[in-house]
Amino acid sequence: MSVSDPADRRATFRAPISTAVVVVDADGREQQGLTLNVSLGGCAFVVPSPLEVDAEIMLQMTLGDRDLSTRAQVRHWRSTVNGFVVGCRFAPLGSAAERLVAGAVTAQDRRTSVRANVAISLEYRRVIANEPFRLTASTDIARGGIRFALVSGVELGDRLQLLVMFEGDRIPLEGTVVRLIADADQRHAAVAFDEARCPRLGEWQAAVGRFLDSHPHVIG
């Protein structure tokens, strides 16, 4: 199998998928969390309490419109302001579960891999903090997410509300910080949109699609 094979990419590509996840440990203790990324091999998620490395766990989440339940093994964890980021490896998936995960990864890859390097105005705030919106600008936009410069403290796993100015419209969106990027003088956040919490996501995706079609030179 070549490196460029789409099946190989699905196996290694960590799609920035944000969805609710229920985590159950070997003693039956249950935690509610939120995924940060998903691949055919495993996923990363944020939960309130740490899990032991090598611990066997059960995961329950919804991908698209279907439910996934699978065993997994904890590979690593680290603490954040929002709890603990846990990386895990799936147990061997059945054919139906593998098709479900592969479909979700492929769909999210299509929504986020084609990005436009463009600066547009947006405002953001953390959902849990009841704080004022902060004005900033994007560096990349895609159908399934956005990357922008941070002007206030944001952590991995934060849920953000955004008001994005695009094509003369102010589009409300909501998503999860799935990556933090730091360069020489600025921090940026990559946010994956949550379809269930974005009633106007279809409008955003259509607008971005039109923009990408008419401005191919800005695709990064």
List keywords for this structure.
220 residues, alpha+beta, Thrombin, subunit H, 2 domains, six-stranded antiparallel β-barrel, 3 helices, 12 strands, globular, disordered N terminus
What does this structure look like?
With 220 residues, the protein is an alpha+beta fold. It has two domains: 6-113, predicted glycosyltransferase like domains (Thrombin, subunit H, Beta Barrel), CATH 2.40.10; 121-218, Beta Barrel (Thrombin, subunit H). The protein is built from three helices and twelve strands. The protein has helices at 6-12, 95-113, 201-214, and strands spanning 20-24, 30-38, 42-47, 56-63, 66-80, 83-90, 121-126, 134-142, 145-149, 159-166, 169-182, 187-193. The strands form two sheets. The chain has a six-stranded antiparallel beta barrel with strand order 1-2-3-6-5-4. A six-stranded antiparallel beta barrel has the order 7-8-9-12-11-10. β4 (56-63) and β5 (66-80) form a beta hairpin. The protein is globular and about 50 Å long. The two termini are 27 Å apart. The model is unreliable at 1-11 (pLDDT under 50).
